[in-house]
Specification:
By secondary structure, the chain is mostly helical. It is built from four helices and three strands. Strands 1-3-2 form a three-stranded antiparallel sheet. It starts with 5 loop residues before the first strand and ends in an 11-residue tail after the last helix.
């Protein structure tokens, strides 16, 4: 069974050169999940890339927390639409293959469709 790895907010804040309060604000706004233990507050190591993205949006691009929330929502929708598009493409490809099989392979195998090169 795989174990979950955590990083303290203090370690993460030091690594990214931010104040711990910023992560607290992200948590209060619902952008980040912080896990509290007796020893302190932690982020899941798997979430660090997500939090780093939030920090870049906030610090480097000057986007407020409301804007970040909208951007993340739009990103999730874009990913969902991309997945749906891939499913539709795959289904269309399968249907095209079935159509070709039904209209070309079956008649040919039953002698109902002649190739251009075949003579009567």
């Amino acid at each position: 069974m795989a174990s979950t790895v955590f990083i303290t907010i203090e370690e993460f804040s030091t690594q990214f050169g931010i104040q711990q309060e910023l992560i607290q604000e992200f948590m209060e706004f619902g952008l980040v999940t912080v896990y509290r233990q007796q020893e302190g507050e932690y982020l899941m190591a798997d979430d660090t890339e997500h939090v780093a993205r939030l920090i870049r949006l906030y610090r480097d691009l000057g986007i407020n927390k409301e804007g970040i929330d909208i951007i993340l929502s739009m990103r999730d929708q874009l990913i969902q639409l991309h997945d749906e598009l891939n499913k539709v493409r795959n289904k269309a490809q399968r249907l095209e293959q079935e159509r070709e099989w039904l209209f070309f392979d079956i008649p040919r195998s039953r002698g109902l469709l002649l190739d251009h090169d075949e003579q009567l």
